[in-house]
Design a protein that fits this description.
heterodimer, A: 112 residues, 6-stranded mixed β-sheet, 4-stranded antiparallel β-sheet, globular, B: 112 residues, 7-stranded mixed β-sheet, 0% helix
């Protein structure tokens, strides 16, 4: 079965420290992987995606993600967190056709 | 703004009411989606339309009825809903099945 797992409900990090939000996936075939962010009372906003090529993908607002095929992971990272990065982050994988499977979300809290 | 608008932003309805949610995209995309977002649950794909044709119906109860009159507009008609249908309903669009989805701000629905 195709699935996406975000093992942490919440990640807490101090401003200026590096952050990692974890995501693992299970999908048949080549994965198309995405990260989205959701701020309060807003829809999801696209951050970055991996389709093919370089395993390190750079996206919006200084975020990047590393695709690891052997570990079936696609962790989101940022070298230096900002308070304004506090939000809900979703990992997603294309599951064939127009179907996308989203993880349950990880709430990131950056403390000043 | 992502180029996807949704109205109304908030809706309170009784279980015997009939209401409709509207979504409009200004991005020239050919695919449109309805998602349900409930607290602490992954996003649930409800319906997908590609070039006005429904391509996905994710076992959604018949009290939810989608309508896609053209590639820019998507409606979700609601009738005889249940309290457990209370959620944030998100609309999204994309250019193709493998492309990034762009989300509207959502309609927060409360069923009393």
């Amino acid at each position: 079965a195709q699935s996406v797992a975000q093992p942490e409900d919440q990640v807490n990090v101090a401003e200026g420290n590096p952050l990692t939000v974890k995501c693992t996936y299970s999908v048949s075939g080549n994965p198309y992987l995405f990260w989205y962010v959701q701020y309060p009372n807003r829809g999801l906003q696209f951050l970055l995606k991996y389709i093919t090529g370089d395993n390190l993908v750079k996206g919006s607002y200084g975020f990047e993600a590393e695709f690891n095929k052997s570990q079936t992971s696609f962790h989101l990272k940022k070298p230096s967190a900002l308070v304004s990065d506090s939000a809900l982050y979703f990992c997603a994988v294309r599951a064939g056709g127009f179907k996308t499977i989203f993880g349950a979300g990880t709430r990131l809290f950056v403390k000043a | 703004e992502t180029g996807v608008t949704q109205t109304p932003r908030h809706l309170v309805m009784g279980m015997t009411n009939k209401k409709s949610l509207k979504c409009e995209q200004h991005l020239g995309h050919n695919a449109m989606y309805w998602y349900k977002q409930s607290a602490k649950k992954p996003l649930e794909l409800m319906f997908v339309y590609n070039f006005k044709e429904q391509t996905e119906n994710n076992s959604v109860p018949s009290r939810f009825s989608p309508e896609c009159p053209n590639s820019s507009h998507l409606f979700l008609h609601l009738h005889t809903l249940q309290p457990e249908d209370s959620a944030l309903y998100l609309c999204a669009s994309s250019q193709g099945s493998e492309e990034t989805q762009y989300f509207g701000p959502g309609t927060r629905l409360l069923v009393l």
